[in-house]
Amino acid sequence: MALLLGIDTGGTYTDAVLFDDKQSQVIAKAKSLTTRHDLAIGISGAVTRVIDAAKIDASTIELVSLSTTLATNALVEGQQRRIGLVMIGFSETDIQRQGLASALGNDPMVRIAGGHNVTGDEAAPLDLAALDAWLYGAGKTVTGYAVAGYFSTRNPEHEIRVRDHIRARTHLPVTCSHELTSQLDGPRRALTCVLNARLIPLIDGLIGATARFLDERNIKAPVMVVRGDGALIAADVARERPIETILSGPAATLVGAAFLTGSQDALVSDIGGTTTDIAVMKNGAPRLDPLGARVGPYQTMVQAVAMRTIGLGGDSEVRLHEEGMRVTLELGPRRAMPVSLLAVEHRDMVHAALEKQMRAEVARPTDARFVVPMPVSDAARAGLSPAEASLLDKIGGKPKAVEDVAETRTETGALNRLVINGLVLISSLTPSDAAHVLGLHSGWDGDAARQAATLMARRRGAKGEVLFETPEAVAEAIIARLVRRSGEALMDVALHEDGFTLDHPSRHPLMIAALEKKTGVSSIRFDFNLPIVGVGASAPTYYPMVGDLLESEVVLPEHADVANALGAVVGHVRITGETVILSPGPGRFRVHGPSDKHDFTDLEAAAETAIAGLKADLAKRAEAAGAGNIDIAVDRKDVSAFTDGQEIFVESRIIAVATGRPRLAHS
Question: Which of 260, 404, 536, 625 could form a disulfide with 233 if both were Cys (CB 3.0 to 4.6 A apart)?
Answer without folding.
Answer: 625
